[in-house]
Amino acid sequence: MPYEYRVVEVREKMIGGKMSGEKLEALLNEHGREGWKLKAITAAEVKGRVGPGGVDGLLVTFERSS
């Protein structure tokens, strides 16, 4: 059975300045309702929209059957 994947970049500023468990939970539930299952959460430096620097963030990987 084939799978498809979705990777969501979560920057600290996108979820209120600090990594909030409540906001991360909302993101997971939102994707779960669409049939996505959490595959992995990876800490990463996520590129910002302006300038060369990055910000601390998460790469959240979801998986579901195609």
Summarize the structure.
Helix content is 20%, strand content 48%. It has one domain (3-65).
Structure description:
The protein is of the alpha+beta class and 66 residues long. It has one helix and three strands. Strands 1-3-2 form a three-stranded antiparallel β-sheet, with helices on one face. Strand 2 and strand 3 form a beta hairpin. The protein is flat, with a radius of gyration of 13 Å.
Keywords:
alpha+beta, single chain, three-stranded antiparallel sheet, 1 helix, 66 residues
Largest beta-sheet characterization = 3 strands, antiparallel
Which H/E pattern describes the elements? EHEE
- Residues in helix, %: 10-25%
What proportion strand? over 45%
Shape: flat
Query: Mean pLDDT score, rounded?
Result: 82
What radius of gyration results from the CA coordinates? 13 Å
- Give the tally of β-strands: 3
Number of helices: 1
Assembly status? single chain
Low-pLDDT windows of residues: none
List the domain count as a whole number.
1
Broad structural category? alpha+beta
Strand order of the largest sheet: 1-3-2
Report how far apart the termini are. 8 Å
Question: Secondary-structure blueprint of this entry?
Answer:
Layout lengths: L2 E9 L9 H13 L3 E11 L6 E12 L1
Antiparallel strand pairs: 1-3, 2-3
